[in-house]
Amino acid sequence: MSAEVDALTVVNQLRDLAADPLNRRAIVEDQGCLPGLILFFDHPNPQVVYSALLAVRYLAECRANREKLKGELGMMLSLQNIMQKSSSPGETKLLASEIYEILQSAGKEEAERAEAAAASCQRKAHFFLGSNNKRAKTVVLHIDGLDDSTRRSLCEEALLKIRGVISFTFQMAVKRCVVRIRSDLKAEALGTAINSTKVMKAQQVVKTDDGGELMLPFQEDSSVLVEENTDIPDYLPEDESPSQEQDKAVTRVGSVTDGLGWLSTAANFLTRSFYW
Q1: Contacts 24+ apart (CB under 8 A), 215-222
Q2: How far apart, in whole angstroms, are the C-alpha atoms of residue 132 and residue 115?
Q3: Which residues pair with 205 in a beta bridge?
Q4: pLDDT per residue rounded down to tens, the chain (276 residues)
Q5: Which of 141, 154, 182, 223 has the fewest CB atoms within 10 Å around its CB?
Q6: Helix (H, G, I), strand (E, B), or coil: what is residue 110?
Q7: Which burial class, exposed, middle or buried, applies to 251 when counting CB atoms under 10 A from its CB (0-12, 13-18, 19+)?
Q8: How many angstroms separate the CA atoms of 46 and 139, rounded?
């Protein structure tokens, strides 16, 4: 790794590695990566902070990681600081809040799973573990024309421009996108943004009372105002698919061997940069 590599490059690489479920245990077990990510929470560049939060959010997807994440020195306090800091962008605060809630529940998950069994149908309909957060909601889109990586990139660009989009993931095999958004953002804004590409058309997928699915088209003449997002960085926040489709993450970060090799280099960089 070049000596000129900056914090944003390092944290983006760690975020990409954490997006692959096969890398998550190794990142948490590494002695340098978690302390480095926590230090990034206090970085003056808001892009670095948001990317570090995304990395930790991916790591928390692995249940076996949560106790260690929660117990890591400074983790919970740093998340609280981000949530309370007036200068933190709204999406950054919301992401920190969801991570905090997930880690707070660590150790209670057996009881939660027992309770969840009684309401499994409802819980399976949610993508993020923090989906009970009333400030955020999940929207499932079926996108006609989502055929290849070029179209996916166009879709990513369209969604990232919308203020209130927290994160999203693609299920390319079924032409779907699962989007986590603020509760005050209308789903029509997502449809308007995707339809504006002129090569793709979005429909909202909703559950029916009998457990089936219904596709609702967005109105062609919809005049929903799409507020442009200027608070978060211009990269893709990806998460593990509800169907655990891993092809996108694996393709994005390379092989496990390559990823772990880079992980070692990144950890060394963090050690040299931040530790005595």
Answers
A1: 215/142, 218/187, 218/188, 218/191, 218/192, 219/188, 222/188, 222/191, 222/192
A2: 14
A3: 140, 215
A4: 443 358 888 898 888 888 888 889 989 988 888 888 999 999 999 999 999 999 999 999 988 999 999 999 999 999 999 999 999 898 899 999 999 999 988 766 545 555 555 555 444 444 444 444 557 888 999 999 998 888 988 998 899 888 888 888 888 888 999 898 888 889 999 999 999 999 999 999 998 888 788 889 987 655 555 566 555 444 444 443 343 333 333 333 344 444 455 555 565 655 555 543
A5: 223
A6: helix
A7: exposed
A8: 26
Structural tokens at position 111: 């009881």
Closest CA to 91 of 230, 197, 203, 226: 230
Residue 114 is encoded by which pair of tokens? 């027992």
**Which residue's entry shows tokens 């967005």?**
218
Report the 10 Å Cβ neighbour count for 49: 25
Q: Name the residue type at position 192.
A: T
Within 24-108, residue ranges assigned H as helices are: 24-29, 33-40, 46-59, 66-71, 75-84, 90-104
Assessment of whether the complete model's pTM goes beyond 0.85: no
**What is the DSSP secondary structure assignment for residue 163, as one 8-state letter?**
T
Q: How far apart are CA 133 and CA 16, in angstroms?
A: 25
Closest of 137, 72, 59, 136 to residue 99, by C-alpha? 59
Please check whether residue 83 is in contact with residue 43, taking contact to mean a CB–CB distance below 8 angstroms: no
